[in-house]
Structure formats: structure tokens, C-alpha cells
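Assemble and predict.
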Amino acid sequence: MTPVTAGSGRSLTDLFVEAAREAIDDAGVDKVDSIYVGNMMSGFLQRQEHLGALMATALGREGVPTYRVEAACASGGVAVNAAAKGLLSGLEDIVLVGAVEKMSGYTTPEVTAGLMMAEDYVKVASTGVTFVGLNAMIAREYMHKYNVTHESIAQFPVMCHQNALDNPKAQFRKKVGVEDVLRSPLVADPLRLLDCSGMGDGAAAIVLAPKDIARKFTDSPIELAASTVASDTLSLYQRPNPSTFEASRRASERAYAMAGIGPGEVDVLEVHDAFSVLGVMALEDLGFAEKGSGTKLLDDGECARDGRVPTNSFGGLKARGHPVGASGVYQVAELALQLKNEAGKCQVSGTEVGLAQSVGGIGSTVTTHILRRVN
Amino acid sequence: MTPVTAGSGRSLTDLFVEAAREAIDDAGVDKVDSIYVGNMMSGFLQRQEHLGALMATALGREGVPTYRVEAACASGGVAVNAAAKGLLSGLEDIVLVGAVEKMSGYTTPEVTAGLMMAEDYVKVASTGVTFVGLNAMIAREYMHKYNVTHESIAQFPVMCHQNALDNPKAQFRKKVGVEDVLRSPLVADPLRLLDCSGMGDGAAAIVLAPKDIARKFTDSPIELAASTVASDTLSLYQRPNPSTFEASRRASERAYAMAGIGPGEVDVLEVHDAFSVLGVMALEDLGFAEKGSGTKLLDDGECARDGRVPTNSFGGLKARGHPVGASGVYQVAELALQLKNEAGKCQVSGTEVGLAQSVGGIGSTVTTHILRRVN
């Protein structure tokens, strides 16, 4: 993983290559049979598509099959899933999955327009509503429906900022309290600045291989026990119940079945908290709390690294940073570090199973990945 | 397949849904386990990403996993390959692959900038060179190196226009001669207007399933006998030999090995003739002619529908049209019609095996698909 930063001035390629080289070196592999690249906005912001061949060339690995996968903010998560299918096809042995996004160096209106490409341009984006505006509607509905206060929800970013203090690659390493969140500048009522993830540049990469091949390179492989993708309507206005992400429920239910576990067996959790309320909703939609009661976990300190459901242990989207198309791979890489007991000061003790949830658009695509330590 | 047109005013979604519904109805399937969407330029031109969830929703099939795959002009071909891997993974039974591009309704500079996203923005596109300019360099090099005349190469688009006369879905149904090509307006020396594919809107879709499942829906399934992707350097300037596409050779060699055949067994061929010279080079790189002698096949009428290597039987990119990210799926759909003996006036007699080559960027990504009639 590269550090997540804004204003580094580094190119898409530089970022990707740094993460990919680190992953390849860490895995100790020479051969890579194919390369999967997750990214959302490079066409719009960098006037650059065809990232598969671009990155293969930059890595000196032109020739191999390459796949650029896009699903808005879930691009990285979907790239991991597509790569896992590639391995299961039996056509390839070792694959690289990397994801990158560069959001700095552009005006806020440019990035805002770019992010809205996750929603329907014709019917929604063209009205002028922004992505944070749509999430503000979700927050308002959630707070009203379940009688939950902003104070309660604000505990989510507070917890993320606390965790990011120990992550040298985090974009925002600053302790904040609930009052800081509530007094930060209003972005889209009720969401304030500290309810929202920021704009950042970053890339993350992992190497995947079937278990028998992975064992040639490491004595402690981490198993990808489940990888699922589910979709929902593209647009928020098409949903009867905006305060639940059905795709999140679908993807996680299939993943639990695939891995043969339930939420109770998850030791470390990464959720897609692009906005504070989404972090809380994820706790519920993934089965860690009843609908409307996600904040109770926060009240009780259960999401802290020493709690029952350690969540976003490296800072999550809010504080580690959210280079949108790359975040899904950051999550998986962070879980792998946790399970390998290599998470440094972010380490959660005794982790055997990790789960990552990545969300594209307004809950329109959701991926779930379950990782398991192989003993 | 939708007809390829310019100026229809139809949206990306309308185009995709028309093709997808036709494919699903033709296949007679109810269930679709996942949806693969190929597209290149929607972010830049339509300010729309996240086409997976968009199209699943438009088809009333939200919930299924969706994958948007991008590899410039080879987006459709790579989407077919990714879907084939999905089937081989054993995780899904019936998949829909659709690809769409909308290029009309924008200025030529806008589309020209969009197409250059297939090349390296930082090092190449930013210099102002255009995509047709790069292909003109290839044409000049090819003509010089092999002492081939423009007259000889111009036979390729002439043949495509001839074939398109019989294809009601073709964008350009107009007979042209070699003299017409040579006298058409100069675009980038030596390439003239009739050497170049045009800008069009279109969508194509297919349904794939493992053989045992396909047999429940049809007595005459068409086998996808090979599906390969290869890459090369992203940029033309990085190539020692610009008049051969190494990725084309790599992808086709792997495909021939996978299908257990050689070029001599191909009865009908679809090649990526975005520019006339690329059609000729494809005949060579795919093994149908020695390097530098591709035009001899045209001299001898071998590429006509009654020739030895019937090529671009529906008109190819030049005359059927080239909605860039969709063309790779058009090719596969056209081959399927040929092998099913449902190609109407475009029918080539006695087809058992078809091959399609799709090219992304300046030969930077190439896919090969081999289809075979199952007797």
C-alpha cells in the first residue's frame, strides 16, 4: 500500500507501480500470469483509460493478460473478486490485483462531478445533486427512522481517527472527538466535514494464488475464504428502504455461506465508511447489530481494537483515506496484515478471520471478502 | 446487436438494453447469474461510470454480480474473456456479456481526445498526436518496410463495404472502390477517410453457459473453443517493430493451442480493421499470410465471402461500424450467427470454425476468440 496523501503530485502509474512492486516482492513471486487493475475515475480526471496495458508496461510485464475492472468506489473490491474467479478458472496460477485512484490536483467541482459518475447521470447527476448530498439523505432517513442522534453516529469517525493514529500510511492522523465532528463545517445537512472521507491519492496491491502454489512461497498463507459481489438498483430513488443496503446483505450472506461462518466468527472487520452513517449501517447490514442499533456497538467500545468487533483497525475510509477505486484493495491488504500478525501498532490480537465490505455508488455494488488464517 | 448508427440520440442504457434483451430472448434463458459490461469511454463522454449496476437495473436484474471491464477498443473482447473465466470458475452457470459505446452527439475533438485515452496520456496523448495519427505512422512504416502500395491496402475497406451491403445493421452500406478510398479526404497521411472506421453508437450482447447447461436451451450450441487476452507495451514508441502486433501473435497462438487448431481450419474470420492497414496486418499476425504479404489474399479474392478466408463477413469495423468498446462483442455475435447458419445474406457456406480478433489501443491489448459449431 502506498500512503494515502493529497497533493503528492505523483502519477497514477507511479502510485500503482509502488504498490504492485511491494506486493510482488513481499510475495516473493517472479511470474505473474495476469494483472487485474481496479480504478474508477481515470478517464474523467486523468484522460487515461486502458490501465491494464499501462500498468503491465510500467511493471515491465507486458505480454500478460490484463483486466481493468470498474464498479465506482467498489472497483478495487470487484477487481479482487474477478481475480479470484480467474484463479478458480484454472487458467492462471499467480495473479496480481492492484487498484489505484488519484483525486488530488483537481478542483472540488471536478472531483465532485467525477464521483457522481457512480450514480445515473441522466436521471440523477444531471439534477445537480452531489454524492454527499445523496448520503446526507440516507443519514437523515436513518436518524429519523431509528431515532438515532448525530452524536451517536459521530462516534464512528472518532473511532477511525483514533485507529489511524497508529497507521503511518493513513491520510488523517489526528485525534478528533464527537464534539469536533459535530462542530466541523457543514457539507450537506446533516453530514459535516468529519463525517466524510476526504479526497486522496493511493494504490494498493495483493498477490493471489491457489493454496498449493501459495504454500511454495510462504508457510503462512492467508486464505481468501469467500469473495462475493452483489448489486442493487443503481439509484437511491429506486429503493424502497434507503437505510439498508440490500446489496450489502446479499453479498455478505453469500460470503458467510461460502466461508461456512457467521458474523460471530469475524475477528477483524473493514467496512466502507465513506460517510459516518454508512459505517454504522454496515455494522447492521453485515449482521453485527440489529437494524437501528449499530451505534450501540460504538457506545460500548465494541468496535475498538480491543473490542468484540474491531472495525477499521487502520483508520478506515475516513482516516486511512479513500482513494475511491483503490479502497477495496486497501481493506483486503490490511486484513492480510492483521491475520499475518504484521499490522504493527494497528495489530488486533488473536485474529483468525477478517471480513471486508466495499461499496460502489449508493450501495449499488457491494463486495464482501472473508480472509482466514491457515493454521 | 443493435444497428450501428450515428445520431440516433439513444442513451447508453437504451442501446445496451436492446441488445441484452435480444440476446436473452434468443437464448431462451430466464436466469442470468452475472452480467459483464464492456465499454471504453462512458466516463469521459457521458460522465457515467458504474455501468454494471446501471445495466443490471435497466434490465430489471439488480442483485446479480456485475462487472464492468475496460481495455480501450478491446473492452468488449476482454469482457467476453472475463465472462468465460467466470463460467470456468464454477461459480456461475449462465452469464450475459454485453458491450456498448455511444460516440455520436459529441464534437470530433471530444471523441478524438476520448479515443486517445487508449494511449499514454502523460507521454503520448499530451503531445497532441491523435489515434489516427499513430495508425498513420504504422501504415507508413508497413508500406515502406514491405513495399506495399496504398492501392493494395485499400482493397481491405473495399471488401468490407461490399460485405456490409448485405448487413441491415451496418453503419455504412455503400459500395466503394479502391479509387474512392484513394481519393477520399486525407485524415492523417497516408490514411484517408475511407481507410478509417467511423464514429458510431451500438451495443451487442451474448449469453454464455457451460456446454451441459447450454444443451438444455438449444440443440445447436456454439462452443467457445478458445478465449485469450494478451498485452503489449501501451505505447507505440516502445515497440521495436511497429508493423507487427506482438500481442496479436501471442493471443492467437495461445488460442490456436487452446482450441487445438491452426489458421487453416478457420472458416470465417473477424479482424479489428479500425484502419485499413490493421486489417492487413491482422491477416499476417494471425497466421493467414506471411508478414508483408497480407494484401495478396485480397488480390486473389481470398477474403471475400466465397474465398478461402472469408473475413469481416458483416462489414467489419470499417463498414458494419466500430462503436469502440462494443466491437469485440459484435464480432463474437456475428461469428455465432455464421456458425448457426443464421447470417442471412451475409452467410458464408459451410462454416464450422470462426475466429475473432479484437485490438485495444495501438495493439496494446488483443483478444482472440475461437468459436466452433458443435455437431
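Strands of chain A lie at 34-38, 66-70, 95-101, 186-188, 191-192, 202-208, 222-231, 268-270, 353-360, 365-373.
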